[in-house]
Write a structure and sequence with these properties.
- The chain is α/β, with parallel strands linked by helices.
- The chain folds into 2 domains: 84 residues, 2-Layer Sandwich (Alpha-Beta Plaits), CATH 3.30.70.120; 156 residues, Rossmann fold, CATH 3.40.50.150.
- Helix content is 32%, strand content 31%.
- The strands form 3 sheets. It has a 7-stranded mixed beta sheet with strand order 10-9-8-11-12-14-13.
- Helix 4 runs parallel beside helix 5.
- It is globular.
């Protein structure tokens, strides 16, 4: 008999003005998704988790932040079995319009739309469903770039959604890497669901692609990852190549700029959505 998987949910009550900060902590620490309740009498949200260790680490960070801000929060956790998880997941993920050209949807809710690129993403453990601001910003940026016949690297590919978008926008060849084996498995699965069978995936860091070069690199990473891989990301870009970065909070943007200050870029652009930032850099 197969043992059922266990999942967890964290319900957190906080002040409305600070809710986004606590949600960001959950995203940074690996939540699978967040559910909001704007019409509720009590300001709260629910985040979903597969790993209880990361969940408890996140709770500690939330408690620390609440203490520093001298604010009060309440939280509870509960376990969810496979059946309940499936019901919650199906209710949570609905088709979503992203940018001007894409409609992202889960396998169980196929939309009717003849005007946008339809991308099916099976929401699993890897990051990237189109719901998070960093993912949607990067897709919007990709829409503004001519990707036809271009060679693309998706560094920290998560669910593979950016690679799939690049394919739909005409990229000639796409390479994806992530240090998480689960992410690579889900990238391959989602690519197949979208009839993409030429995506090159590997478990590892961008360094694995040296000495190759790319016309475009997308990297939705956290700040420590950018610190570790900044030189490699620059070296992998062709002359006039474009680097699209996100995964950082607005408060971290200055630090990220410093990371790439030593490199010469002829064009820089910045975008913001809520508490999150994205950068577009073009190499000389």
């Amino acid at each position: 008999m197969n043992q059922q998987k266990r999942w967890w949910q964290l319900t957190l009550i906080c002040s409305e003005t600070l809710q986004e900060l606590f949600e960001n902590i959950c995203w940074e620490n690996g939540t699978l998704g967040i559910q909001n309740f704007p019409d509720s009498a009590h300001n709260h949200f629910i985040s979903y988790w597969q790993n209880p260790d990361t969940l408890h680490f996140c709770i500690n960070r939330c408690n620390d932040l609440a203490s520093r801000l001298a604010t009060h929060i309440q939280w509870t956790t509960s376990e969810i079995d496979d059946q309940e998880w499936g019901e919650k997941w199906h209710a949570f993920f609905k088709p979503i319009l992203v940018g001007r050209k894409f409609l992202v949807y889960p396998p169980w809710d196929i939309p009717v739309d003849d005007y946008r690129f339809k991308i099916v993403i099976n929401p699993g453990q890897a990051f990237g469903t189109g719901y998070h601001e960093t993912t949607s910003m990067m897709i919007e940026i990709l829409e503004t770039i001519d990707l036809k016949n271009k060679r693309i690297l998706d560094a920290g590919c998560g669910s593979g959604i950016l690679s799939i978008c690049a394919d739909r926008l005409g990229a000639a060849s796409i390479f994806a890497c992530d240090i998480d084996p689960t992410a690579i498995a889900e990238t391959r699965d989602n690519a197949g669901r979208n009839d993409i069978f030429s995506l090159h995936c590997l478990i590892g860091t961008p360094e694995a692609y040296r000495p190759g070069t790319f016309d475009l690199i997308v990297a939705n990473l956290d700040l420590p990852a950018f610190a570790n891989h900044k030189k490699t990301l620059f070296s992998l870009l062709k002359a006039s190549g474009i680097l699209v970065l996100s995964g950082i909070l607005n408060t971290q943007e200055k630090t990220l700029k410093e990371y790439f200050k030593e490199h010469e870029f002829e064009k820089q652009d910045y975008r913001y959505s809520g508490e999150w930032s994205a950068m577009v850099l073009q190499k000389r």
